Amino acid sequence: MTYRHEQFPARKCESKSARKNAKSVWALAIASLLALTLSGCGEWRDHPPVATQAQAANGGDEKSVATTTAGTTSATTEVPSAGGDAATPSPAVTAQDSSASTGPTPSEPPAPAQPAAQSGAINSVDVMIDDMRLMNDLPLKNVNPAYGWAHGPGFVMMGNDPRGTNTPDWWKASNPGLVNDNYLPRMLPWAVMFEGVGNAASNTRVQVRNLRAYVLSKSTGQWQLTHSADSMDGTDCPQTGNYFECTTSMDTRPESSGGSSIKPRPGMNAHGWFGGRALINGPDIAAVFVTMESRLVVDNPQGPDDRNAAKFLFHVGADYYHADHVTVLMPAVAISRSKQISNEWQAFNMTTFSDVGLQEPGGGITQAQLRANPPPIN
After folding, report:
1. Beta strands in 244-306 (DSSP E)
2. Which SS3 state, helix, strand or coil, does residue 300 take?
3. Which helix (H) or strand (E) holds 234?
4. How far apart are CA 137 and CA 146, in angstroms?
5. What's the pLDDT tens digit per position in 194-204?
């Protein structure tokens, strides 16, 4: 799984030929895109088609379901069928793909219980708003400062409207065949861990837990849980590269205190995703919320505790997809600002606001609406 930078954040998986074409489009478009980057935004691309390593090992065809309607849960997650391979993605589909024409309403097996909160009250509506409103905590090491996410604040791109018609003008100009009113039927949340300028830690890991994604239903007014995990799959990408072909798996390990941890590699940024491409009902989405918790931990307990010298940051987001396995490049749902990771547990949030962050073109709920009806937060 890789991602490529353009003007705004989005990521998708491509076949080899599609990657080659996308690179050409990017090269031709970069001059005009930079002219559009007065707001300085970047673009994320490329998730692999697998949900988790464990599911991929089973050959796919595994379904997990979880829903939350303000305390009760429901939405379907699909992983690739047998033969799906992150290294060999399926060919790209076009906007005429029948699975993208309407928002799916999948049948739902009995839903599991809502995951138990592990952290106490570390998240809040104010934190959710600030994670989209504020600028980044630190400069991102070796990241092109022309990219908007190199500075912040949060960006709302496709927001709560997963259609090709709700994309930035620069993207429409490069993808005219995908500009239509067909609703994209799947969503995948992700996170990127950056090294900050001035980092001096080498014996520090980044622990994560409580990775969740929700959509707010227009019809019911309830938040529905689409993804739930305590670890991420992902790759390490060169900080100075184009984030388009990342082949090194993240160095992860389970933690006895819960969740898992990622070991930063020098010169690399860790790009992870979780929970697979979940089915969503596009016309019914009022807002999208992605959250996770993270803190610094010591890598080797026999070595020095250098966490106070660590400068690592996370930002979180999500992508819409046409179908499972496919390779269509779409802008992101939204991305949060990059927030520094500390020794204490913190929440990292992306919310599709209509009045917070930069709207490109945007879509979601207002701060007042969120305060009146917040999602389940720890």
Report:
1. 248-249, 251-254, 260-263, 268-273, 277-279, 285-298
2. coil
3. strand 233-238
4. 17
5. 999 999 999 99
